[in-house]
Each structure stands twice: as structure tokens, then as C-alpha cells.
Specification:
The complex is a heterodimer of chains A (about 200) and B (about 200). Chain A is mainly α and about 200 residues long. Helices cover about 65% and strands about 0% of the residues of chain A. The longest helix of chain A has 21 residues. Chain B has about 200 residues and is of the alpha+beta class. In chain B, helix 4 packs across helix 5. Classes of the chains: A mainly alpha (about 200), B alpha+beta (about 200).
Chain lengths: ~200, ~200
């Protein structure tokens, strides 16, 4: 068992090493994970929940889930796995917290995405969401790097326009325009695929 | 509900797409693209220069083409039957594929002759020689333009210029420059046929 202090764990620590720590049930595993991905996890949780305390609890829940999952899981890429858990836990908590009350950045994204939906027929099957994910995945493949960045960071990581501007070097107006076009393209893409929502 | 569904769908995208932007650095400042400092003055200068060129071209100061109807700045030609200026006692008239020449002498006598297109050049040359006129064919410049005419009749400092495909004729001397316009329209080939025959004549000599 290793006894390195948290300060010794640089952000550049290798994902494989972190997973090894989890497999070894090392007490440094979670600090190592937190050092590398803690800030990103907090940002996602904070954006979904719009509440620092809830976000911190969610991130801790996520660490516990990861501790339980690894081993036997050996996720690759680790970042996507960790962030996905945080995101899902945060959304679940949000649903619990705000069953009747709309709050948090996630709803802003939901409003924007409403126009992507080809029609407003009933959706009865949860399988549909998985099918949708496959189509959205293939749609993302058609985007160039910048548009991919904007789409994924906006609707998966729930980044603000200011953050997207920092990441992409584009102005916020340009980002809004691009995202609007991407949403329209997504709608057409889904319609071409015969998706009826 | 539907937007929630699509949000859920986005949540389920592949790890590859999520991981691609997981560790993105946010230090890319947005810099509004500015035009280069020299671009605006350069564009203004270009516009001014183009304007000046257009004005000069319209005023006839700059021209590669000496033919007046293609250069609005040239003085209006004298329109009439005469193809030669009065300084030369020779009038040419076209009539149904032939050329009639009238040589007016100072004492008032006239010599009228009608030539067919072949004979015209030879005999016209002889006629002109009688008045000390010579026939020259100019070499066009690189742009295919003969500034002094495709066919040039010279006598001392006087020069009579013809261009193919036009019925304009220029008379030029040390003192003056005049433009004449044949009464026959271009396309009926009166002047043109003369010019071509003159050209053939010179070339075949």
C-alpha cells in the first residue's frame, strides 16, 4: 500500500495508475482520482444542481460508486466513466430535489434542445433514449472539431457560453449561432433517420 | 418531456466523445479578428486609383484603342460620303461591290473611275502614287492594336489611317487630326474590302 500524500499526486498522474490504486484498494485511490478529476466532477455536479453542498455530496457519492465498481471494472477512458457517473448522480438528485420546481443550468439546456425534437408525439419506451444516443453519437461524428467541442461541452458538460468561449476562442454570439445551426442539423439528421419522438 | 428525452440521449453518447473534451483547457482568449492596419488605407487608395483610371479612360487620355467609336473621348467624326479628307483630292464611294473614286483637281476637273475589288488596290495605289501618297501596313502591337491604323497612306507629314472592321478613317498632319466616317455601314465591307485588298497587295508584292 502506498502512502503518498495528496500533494504528491500530480494532475498528470496516469489513469492506469489510478485504476491500479483502486485495484490495490489503496487509500490513495480516491485522493488520486479527486486530484485529477475532482475539479471537473464538481463543475459538472454544480452545473446540474446549482448548489455547492449538493454538488459536493454528489461527487462523494460518485467516488463511493467508483470505489465499489473498480474492481472488477477497468474503465477506459477513466475520465468519461467518472464524469458520466457524476452527471447521472447529479441529474438523479436534481430530479429528487426539484420534482416540481425548475432550477439549475440543466433546464436551460433542455429548453435549447426542445427545438431539436422532430415532433411532439408520445415517447413510451426508455429504449428509445438508447437508440437516440446511438444516432446522436453518429451525428457528433459528422461534426468538425470545434462544433463537436461546442456540442459536447454544452450539452454533456453543461458549460456556459463564457466557458465555451474560453475553450474555443470564439465569441459568445458566434457560439450561440453555431449551436443553433448544430441543433437544426441534429433535428434534420434525426428526421432523416426516421426518428419520431 | 421530449427535450428531457433528447438530453438523456445526449447523456448516453459514447465515452470517446465525452473523453475527447474531458480535459480541455480553458485558456483560449476570444480575440475579435481585426483587419490589418494597412488594409483600409490600401483599399481606399485602390478605389481612388481605379476611379482615376476610369475617369481618364472615359476622357480618352488613356487608351490602347485608337478607333474613336470605341473611345468616347475622341472628337466626333465627320459623317458623310467622303472617305478621305479634303486635303486629298480623292473621294471613294462604294457601289455594289465596287469602288468608285473621284479625283478632283484644283482646276475643277474630276477623274472618275470604278474599280472592282481586285483592281482597286493596284489602280488605287497608282492613283495615290500620282499624288505622292504611299501605302503602308502597320504592325500591330502586342495587344493586336495598330495605333496608326492597319493600312496607312502617307504623303509627307500627312497620314491617312484605316482600321479593319470599322469604317472610321483618321487624317493626321502636323497641324491637325480629323476623323472621318464612311457613309457605308460596317459589314457591307466597302472600307474593309479595300483594307484587306490593300493588305493582300502589300503582302504579295
Amino acid at each position: 500500500m502506498e502512502t503518498k500524500g495528496k500533494s504528491a499526486l500530480s494532475e498528470s498522474i496516469d489513469d492506469t495508475r489510478i485504476i491500479e490504486l483502486f485495484f490495490a484498494r489503496s487509500e490513495d485511490a480516491v485522493p488520486a482520482l479527486s486530484t485529477k478529476y475532482g475539479a471537473g466532477c464538481m463543475r459538472i455536479a454544480q452545473k446540474v444542481l446549482n448548489n455547492a453542498q449538493d454538488a459536493e455530496e454528489c461527487v462523494n457519492d460518485a467516488y463511493l460508486r467508483i470505489w465499489q465498481d473498480i474492481p472488477p471494472k477497468r474503465p477506459n477512458p477513466l475520465a468519461a466513466y467518472v464524469f458520466r457517473i457524476v452527471r447521472n448522480l447529479s441529474i438523479n438528485r436534481l430530479e429528487r430535489n426539484t420534482a416540481k420546481k425548475r432550477a439549475g443550468g440543466v433546464y436551460l439546456c433542455l429548453d435549447e434542445l426542445r427545438d431539436c425534437v422532430p415532433s411532439l408525439h408520445s415517447v413510451e419506451d426508455t429504449v428509445f433514449a438508447k437508440e437516440l444516443s446511438v444516432y446522436i453519437d453518429s451525428f457528433i461524428d459528422t461534426l468538425n472539431y470545434t462544433n463537436r467541442l461546442l456540442f459536447v461541452r454544452r450539452y454533456w458538460y453543461l458549460d456556459s457560453f463564457a466557458e465555451l468561449s474560453r475553450y474555443s476562442g470564439l465569441g459568445e454570439g458566434a457560439i450561440r449561432t453555431r449551436l443553433s445551426r448544430i441543433r437544426n442539423d441534429l433535428k434534420k439528421y434525426l428526421e432523416r433517420k426516421g426518428l419520431e419522438l | 418531456m421530449n427535450s428531457s428525452m433528447i438530453f438523456e440521449g445526449i447523456g448516453g453518447i459514447s465515452d470517446a466523445h465525452v473523453a475527447e473534451f474531458a480535459n480541455i483547457e480553458g485558456n483560449k482568449p476570444h480575440v475579435r479578428r481585426k483587419l490589418a492596419l494597412w488594409l483600409a488605407p490600401a483599399a481606399a487608395c485602390l478605389c481612388v486609383a481605379l476611379g482615376i483610371i476610369l475617369i481618364l479612360k472615359n476622357s480618352g487620355s488613356i487608351s490602347n484603342n485608337p478607333i474613336p467609336h470605341e473611345n468616347p473621348g475622341y472628337p466626333d467624326p465627320i459623317v458623310g460620303n467622303a472617305l478621305t479628307p479634303p486635303q486629298i483630292p480623292l473621294d471613294w464611294y462604294a457601289s455594289e461591290g465596287s469602288i468608285e473614286s473621284i479625283v478632283s483637281l484644283e482646276d475643277g476637273t474630276e477623274y472618275r473611275e470604278t474599280y472592282d475589288s481586285k483592281q482597286t488596290v493596284l489602280e488605287l495605289s497608282d492613283v495615290l502614287a500620282g499624288f505622292n501618297w504611299t501605302i503602308n501596313v502597320s504592325k500591330p502591337n502586342d495587344e493586336g492594336i495598330s495605333e496608326d491604323g492597319d493600312i496607312i497612306l502617307c504623303s509627307g507629314d500627312k497620314m491617312l489611317s484605316f482600321w479593319y472592321n470599322t469604317n472610321y478613317v483618321r487624317y493626321k498632319s502636323a497641324q491637325e487630326e480629323k476623323w472621318f466616317l464612311a457613309s457605308v455601314p460596317v459589314g457591307e465591307n466597302d472600307l474593309n474590302s479595300i483594307a484587306i485588298e490593300l493588305f493582300n497587295y502589300i503582302r504579295n508584292r
